[in-house]
């Protein structure tokens, strides 16, 4: 029984696009639970990268779009229409005529006919803003673009290029029951990484791509993308010099006050599963987020281990990923109790196959390792929302009863 430990609780889930989706859905099933999903906007692949090139200064909307799907289920024509708009992709060789035809169908009600009127009006409005921008300045690569990303781009332009305002607008239009929050103030930044042998992964798309066995060692948030010419210059430098140059090129980002407030008032903080070096660890680099977590009233701060490994975790086990989380939060010995528990699936073939022999952090401050059956029996490798939320509730209950955190 989940109640009473999570009923009416405030929960913060650090997440990416899909890795934590099943857990988020499970949390949304708890009566009166208030869920804030904290996400970063450093996605730079495929259609998202095309949008960011077309609209310099805009972060990537893709992971926010994916989280707008959390409450949508098959079988309900209205929800199917909402999901259809968010997931619809233009043809691989789409032209402006393809976009105009779709936008016209949405405005007239001939496309996705069961779309709620309020959502239809918002989608038509924001697509109109984007098409007006395309009239003034063509050049956006529309092939394979997600329609939801284009709606987001229109909202971004309509709201004075305010990324976080666009998130709120789209969340309202698509009736999201979760609060979707960008972890930063919306400042533009580009994610790059170095591997342990000094090799450069020049953008987020490189980071999430299939990797060799050499582990990623460092992440950087830059104020501009790494162009092919700049990449060649960086790769010609000695390893330590390359690291120093990347560190000097850091973007100036700030903590979104909405994110800080959600963390401060959370009863439970969950470091969700996903692609660590793209979706999760970069969020922990946000100035001020560590202090907010440290002073949060949360009874438990739980790191949920992936059931199966992503491409970016080559050479890293669960303990290494917990330690890396603590390192990016500025608390490598866990002296500020940034992570109180590590929750891993029993019998996983990935990084979370078993608790390590020794805890992360220094003696006496290491998180408690908890093992449970967390896998969805219908979808191997994916967390069961019901099972994982039940395990989180037990952790909160035990922690509350013991009076520790």
From TrEMBL:
InterPro entries: CofD (IPR002882), CofD-like_dom_sf (IPR038136), Gluconeogen_factor (IPR010119). One of its GO terms (molecular function) is LPPG:FO 2-phospho-L-lactate transferase activity. Residues 349-385 are annotated as: Disordered. Keywords: Cytoplasm. Residues 349-367 have a biased composition (Low complexity). This is Gluconeogenesis factor. It comes from Planobispora longispora. The lineage of its organism: Bacteria, Bacillati, Actinomycetota, Actinomycetes, Streptosporangiales.
């Amino acid at each position: 029984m989940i109640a009473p430990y999570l009923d009416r609780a405030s929960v913060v889930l650090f997440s990416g696009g899909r890795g934590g989706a099943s857990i988020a859905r499970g949390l949304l099933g708890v009566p009166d639970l208030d869920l804030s999903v904290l996400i970063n906007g450093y996605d730079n692949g495929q259609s998202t990268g095309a949008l960011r090139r077309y609209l310099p200064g805009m972060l990537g909307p893709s992971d926010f779009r994916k989280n707008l799907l959390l409450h949508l289920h098959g079988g309900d024509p209205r929800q199917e229409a909402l999901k259809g708009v968010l997931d619809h992709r233009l043809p691989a060789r789409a032209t402006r005529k393809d976009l105009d035809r779709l936008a016209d169908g949405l405005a007239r009600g001939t496309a996705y006919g069961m779309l709620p009127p309020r959502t239809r009006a918002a989608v038509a409005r924001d697509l109109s803003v984007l098409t007006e921008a395309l009239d003034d300045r063509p050049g956006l690569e529309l092939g394979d673009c997600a329609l939801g990303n284009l709606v987001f781009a229109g909202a971004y332009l309509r709201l004075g290029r305010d990324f976080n305002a666009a998130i709120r607008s789209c969340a309202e239009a698509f009736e999201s029951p979760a609060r979707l929050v960008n972890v930063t103030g919306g400042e533009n930044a580009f994610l790059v990484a170095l591997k342990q042998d000094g090799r450069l992964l020049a953008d987020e798309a490189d980071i999430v791509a299939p990797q060799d066995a050499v582990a990623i060692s460092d992440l950087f948030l830059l104020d501009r993308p790494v162009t092919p010419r700049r990449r060649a210059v960086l790769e010609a430098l000695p390893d330590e010099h390359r690291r120093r140059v990347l560190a000097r090129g850091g973007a100036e980002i700030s903590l979104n006050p909405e994110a800080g407030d959600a963390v401060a008032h959370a009863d439970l903080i969950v470091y969700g599963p996903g692609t660590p070096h793209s979706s999760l660890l970069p969020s922990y680099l946000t100035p001020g987020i560590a202090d907010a977590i440290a002073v949060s009233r949360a009874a438990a701060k739980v790191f949920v281990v992936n059931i199966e490994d992503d491409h970016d975790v080559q050479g890293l086990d669960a303990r290494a990923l917990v330690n890396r989380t603590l390192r990016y939060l500025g608390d490598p010995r866990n002296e500020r109790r940034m992570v109180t528990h590590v929750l891993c699936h029993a019998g996983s073939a990935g990084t979370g196959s078993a608790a390590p022999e020794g805890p992360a952090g220094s003696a006496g401050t290491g998180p408690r390792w908890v093992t449970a059956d967390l896998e969805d029996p219908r979808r191997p490798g994916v967390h069961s929302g019901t099972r994982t939320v039940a395990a989180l509730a037990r952790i909160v209950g035990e922690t509350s009863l013991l009076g520790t955190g």
